[in-house]
Design a protein that fits this description.
The protein is an all-alpha fold and 306 residues long. 75% of the residues lie in helices and 0% in strands. It folds into two domains: 45 residues; 213 residues, MetI-like (MetI-like fold).
Length: 306
Amino acid sequence: MMTASATRERLAQGVNQAARGRLGAAMSARPARAGGRVAMIVVIVLWSLFPVYWALNTSLTTLSAADSTPAHYLPSPLVGTSYRTIFGSGSDVSGQFTRSLLNSTIEAGGAMIITVVVAVFAAYAFARLRFRFKRTIFVSVLATLLLPAYATLIPLYRIMGTLGLVNTYIAVILVYVSGFLPLAIWILYNYFNSIPRELEEAAFVDGASPVRALLTVVIPVAVPGIAAAAIITFLMGWAQFLFPLVLTSDLSTQPVTVIVAALNQQRTVPFTLMMACGVTAAAIPGVIALILNRYVVQGLTAGSIK
């Protein structure tokens, strides 16, 4: 008969073999999982960037080459006529497009400035001050994020029409601010909560008021969070289409998104030229996002770890 020690030795050997088998299977499965993730990332990147590349390819060639069969996956011939047209002078498309870029900059920039200024004070009040119904007001502000934007389109248009603000920069900026402010408050609220209270308490000991502590102590520390809110607000304002389409009716206030869509309806405009307008309109926020990406990431993740 097998002794107790031999039985234990047998069991230990069996456990070790099973563990080595599971470890080997896990090790062999790692390359397969890594390869699958890489393949998935490649597919997602191609799916996302190929339309942008195709628009750029079309904008850099002639109309006959872009309409040829089979399609050219590289611009052949390579010409910059479309971009010279939209940034040149003496063309109706050039005048409309450059004016729409100015309109987009004014509307998105104005909304960004007002939203960030209001959001800084509101988020600081929610994060630091004590007052009645604070939680109820805060939850109510954030709950507006759940409201579909299209549900407010007609009421906002009626309000702006009553005030005589339709087809003005002020109408578009105010509508943008009303939509972007809750998100900016949420971003800055989380960032302010990640800042140690001892910094403000030291300022209070020196006799500073809450407003002065905010301006001299908190804001310099919260620059990444404020930058993230500002960048996100500007990009969201630049991408808006439906609200400015309804609130603006002529070139004096229409942003670039509305003008590019209007050019698509004009049969006299070559689609190579429309592609150049679309690429330019998309390149501006794309470059901003790439250059300032670290501020967005730092501002959005600051409140997640304390």
